[in-house]
Amino acid sequence: MTHLVPLAKEVDENKVTPGVLGFIVFAVMAVAVWGLMKSMSKHMQKVDFKESPDADAEQAREQADSAARQR
């Protein structure tokens, strides 16, 4: 076992790599983000962006227009 000690000294101690575990964690996070984006897209397609006109706002606008015409 002592003949492996010189090989261990040759390894750069400042070099740090994430390894297989880091890749697996990154891949799982990427799949989770993809799934969330797909779900959000599906929910956004169900949203109706067209609003019905507000009767009170329409009446207030007409009153403001008539008041502006009188001046």
From TrEMBL:
The chain crosses the membrane at residues 20-37. Residues 45-64 have a biased composition (Basic and acidic residues). Residues 45-71 are annotated as: Disordered. Keywords: Membrane, Transmembrane, Transmembrane helix. This is Uncharacterized protein.
